Amino acid sequence: MSQEFLARILEQKAREVEQMELEEVQPLHQTYRLAEFLKNHRDRLQVIAEVKKASPSLGDINLDVDIAQQAQTYEVNGAVMISVLTDDIFFKGHLDYLREISSQVEIPTLNKDFIIDEKQIVRARNAGATVILLIVAALSEERLKELYDYATELGLEVLVETHNLAELEVAHRLGAQIIGVNNRNLTTFEVELQTSVDLAKHFKDDCLYISESAIFTRQDAERVAPYFNGILVGTALMQAEDVAQRIKELQIDKG
Question: Which residue of the set 111, 212, 229, 249 is catalytic?
């Protein structure tokens, strides 16, 4: 994977944003607040289940999936939120997938994309997302704060994604409530679950933490369960023969 992966994706996003109109803000999709749910259910490692057809690292994952049915299977089996890839060029996602899934489930949906502009945030909200992703590595600290504040003013929750200690400190300074630790390096695209374990030493008691990527088995989930409120899982669920069983394996009761 090219060292310039993140830079290439951000260049593409800048081109897309240039062509976007700022949509009129529509009513917010009604569901529970993710942060509140995570706070009230700390006794279990919660699963954020992702719908993605492809990725730059793996290529095609599951192109023929019925996305609405997949999302409903996630919901019925206890997923706390559904993450929906909306990037077309790199992940073969689409904003329409977010629209369709948000209309079919009652749990929160996350717009999983590389967000660099307010126009994308309004589009996500209008498509049914109640949570958006902001990636520390993709934004200056000043721009991150602008977009974070804009999203929260629109009633959205924000998953702030980090990968190393410097980025985690940025998220803490921001006052982020829900912080993700991506075990995948977005520059090299290598994955290492130890990233989550190492960064957990620097966690704060008043934040909620999600471990993202590199989680495939119950053993993987058990490694991060002592430190995290939830895990974001995509490939393992998209490739699973029995999705319901795989979700249950990953939901670790912490007692």
Answer: 212
pLDDT per position as a tens digit, 190-235:
889 999 999 999 999 999 999 999 999 999 999 999 999 999 998 8
Is 248 assigned a catalytic role? no
Say whether 213 is catalytic. yes
pLDDT at 63: 56
Q: What is the pLDDT of residues 91-140, one digit of tens each?
A: 888 999 999 999 999 999 999 999 999 999 999 999 999 999 999 999 99
Cα–Cα distance list, 22 to 93, 106, 124, 152, 153 (Å)? 21, 27, 12, 17, 16
Give domain limits for the chain: 5-18+37-250
Considering the candidates 126, 182, 185, 196, report the single residue annotated as catalytic.
Answer: 182
| Whether 16 is catalytic | no
CA–CA distance, 98 with 88 (Å, rounded to integer): 12
Give the CATH H-level superfamily of domain 5-18+37-250.
Aldolase class I (3.20.20.70)
* Catalytic position from the list 50, 100, 157, 167: 50
Per annotation, catalytic residue among 55, 83, 102, 213: 213
Q: Is 164 a catalytic residue?
A: no
Distances (CA, A) of 80 to 74, 139, 232: 9, 27, 10
In the annotation, is 182 catalytic? yes
Is 188:3 a contact under the CB 8 Å cutoff?
Answer: yes
Instruction: Name the pLDDT band for 244 (thresholds 50, 70, 90).
Output: very high
Given 52, 185, 211, 229, which residue is catalytic? 52
